[in-house]
Specification:
The protein has 354 residues and is mainly alpha-helical. It has 18 helices and no strands. Among the domains are: 34-143, Serine Threonine Protein Phosphatase 5, Tetratricopeptide repeat (Alpha Horseshoe), CATH 1.25.40; 240-344, Tetratricopeptide repeat domain (Serine Threonine Protein Phosphatase 5, Tetratricopeptide repeat, Alpha Horseshoe). It has helices at residues 18-32, 40-54, 65-76, 80-92, 96-106, 116-128, 132-143, 152-163, 168-181, 184-199, 203-215, 223-235, 239-251, 259-271, 275-287, 295-309, 312-326, 331-344. The radius of gyration is 24 Å and the shape is elongated.
């Protein structure tokens, strides 16, 4: 297959079969909506300021930079209405950066009244002016089932426009859509965009690129390169990459098997909350693979894994493991395991070795 960059002569993303693509767009929109922020007001305020500043490399088209500095200060102070007034003045003077900020506010940022039609208008103005941030956000908004005039084809075009400006989030979103389409040309182009997003530093793209390489999906199979991407993402904090990297070291996929190194990465993933890693690490302690055999530690990880799996097949597996190990322990050992589990729930315990 070709190793050309997606910026070169690649099949256009718009050539993907419409039926498969719409399903992928819907799935992406659903995923994007998952998970409330820990501190929504603060995070949204920071995100709005960051998004506005992402466009600040443009030459100031109307000499209104003072308005933006003042608006940012007002946002930091939580005075959203004052910031909106300044953005409206700048937008009326033709500044696309202000259109971007207004679009985010009309999407409901910082608890502002949600007006999606107005948000689309503002984001379109900024996207037409070439702001990658606006193109990316407009693409996601047009995927949302609750958006008036939802338009999957237009969403794809805007995501591609942002992706071609080297926005790794847009590249990742576009890659997901193309990979879900499932046909050969889409898989190849999707994998190329995933590589671009990974090279741009997006951790989830680095993890997903590793999966594509390990499976030979859209790219030539290369487990050694998959391990390199997982190592890069896991070192930077990706829980999923740490799990898959640990599994690669355990099973000798792309590297010579090293159970000790596998245990280090698996523990990093487990402490970050991955229930698969909790169960795998529990079994390693139970059997003495890569670590000293320690049934108390095994029970502790089974307890944590059962809690984090919250039902389903993993939860059942964790329960079976817990009951099996508990049966061989006395009351003092079971209590020690419960105390250890409480400590394991506290989070990471330092850096994993590579």
């Amino acid at each position: 297959m070709s190793d050309a960059s997606p910026r070169m002569d690649r099949p256009s993303a718009r050539c993907v079969a419409a039926g498969s693509l719409v399903l992928g767009l819907c799935a992406l929109a659903a995923c994007a909506a998952d998970g409330p922020a820990a501190n929504p007001d603060r995070e949204q305020r920071d995100e709005l300021v960051r998004a506005r500043r992402s466009a600040s490399l443009l030459e100031d088209p109307v000499g209104e930079d003072g308005l933006f500095a003042e608006a940012d200060a007002l946002l930091e102070a939580g005075e959203v209405s004052g910031a909106r007034e300044l953005y409206e003045r700048a937008a009326a003077a033709g500044d696309p950066r202000a259109e971007l900020a207004l679009g985010l506010l009309d999407e409901g940022a910082l608890g502002e009244p949600r007006d999606l039609e107005a948000a689309i208008g503002h984001l379109e103005a900024a996207a037409d002016a070439g702001l990658a941030e606006a193109q990316y956000r407009l693409g996601l908004l047009l995927l949302d089932a609750g958006t008036p005039g939802r338009d999957a084809a237009a969403a794809l075009r805007w995501l591609e426009a942002a992706a071609r400006q080297d926005d790794p989030r847009a590249q990742y979103a576009l890659a997901q859509l193309l990979l879900r389409a499932g046909d050969g040309a889409s898989l190849e182009v999707g994998a190329a965009w995933m590589r671009s997003a990974a090279e741009g530093g997006l951790l989830e793209a680095q993890h997903q690129l590793g999966l594509l390489l390990a499976r030979g999906r859209g790219v030539e199979r290369d487990e050694a390169e998959a391990v390199r991407w997982w190592t890069r993402a896991a070192t930077a904090g990706s829980r999923d990459a740490a799990h898959d990297l640990g599994l690669a070291w355990l099973q000798g996929r792309g590297v010579l098997a090293d159970p000790t190194r596998a245990a280090v990465w698996m523990e990093r993933a487990a402490r970050a909350g991955d229930p698969r890693a909790c169960l795998r690490l529990a079994a390693m302690h139970e059997q003495g693979v890569g670590v000293a055999r320690d049934p108390v530690r095994a029970l502790a990880w089974y307890l944590v894994g059962e809690e984090r799996a919250a039902g389903g097949p993993l939860g059942r597996d964790a329960r079976v493991g817990r009951l099996r190990v508990e049966g061989g322990l006395d009351a003092a050992q079971r209590e020690a395991a419960r105390e250890a589990a409480a400590g394991l729930r506290q989070g990471p315990s330092g850096d994993a070795g590579a």
